[in-house]
Amino acid sequence: SAVISQKPSRDICQRGTSLTIQCQVDSQVTMMFWYRQQPGQSLTLIATANQGSEATYESGFVIDKFPISRPNLTFSTLTVSNMSPEDSSIYLCSVELGLHRSGEQYFGPGTRLTVT
Amino acid sequence: GQQVMQIPQYQHVQEGEDFTTYCNSSTTLSNIQWYKQRPGGHPVFLIQLVKSGEVKKQKRLTFQFGEAKKNSSLHITATQTTDVGTYFCASNAGGTSYGKLTFGQGTILTVHP
Fold first, then answer.
1. Which of A98, A109, B17, B65 has its CA 20 to 30 A from that of A84?
2. pLDDT per residue as tens digits for the range B40-71
3. Does B33 sit within 8 Å of A103, measured CB to CB?
4. Cβ contacts (< 8 Å) between A109 and chain B: which residues?
5. In whole angstroms, what is the distance from residue B48 CA to residue B31 CA?
């Protein structure tokens, strides 16, 4: 497994502002992902963070709203831009470990965002 | 993309009773994964099933993948209060979409002592 940390763990933000969430892994990983989990709901994939190239976004998510950086194999950031109360959610990063693409993912502790 | 439907949404059991959650898809799945999320926590990987008809056990947990690879189940024998949480199935699309997990809605398990 890997040790995955996220910063901040939680934040309360005003609408119209932006928040950048950091995800740090203690080992080099190829695949990093960003998910959103709204209160009491399941997880929805926002995008795949690709090292050295632009992130790949899922349907319903766009780069202008959720810009992602992946400067190296151990770190990624997700920015939630121009926030509204509908963005209140838990944001989780995850990594896929293993040289043989086993598929299992390990999640960070999450960032609980409240937009007022 | 792949969609997985999970039932039931909630399950309340007395400690010692068994518990089962089901995951179904209208399309053939390349694999199925199961995760557990404790209240206030993050999803934790439990297991992955790949083969048709596969059955795997982890202590009191039994995982099955259907013969047609369109459904899966997680069964917990003699639940304990430590089993409380939300259980998610997830499927990993193959090919160029490998790694992109689609999660079921989750089953919230409450265990009454």
1. A109
2. 999 999 999 999 999 999 999 999 999 999 99
3. yes
4. 41-42
5. 7
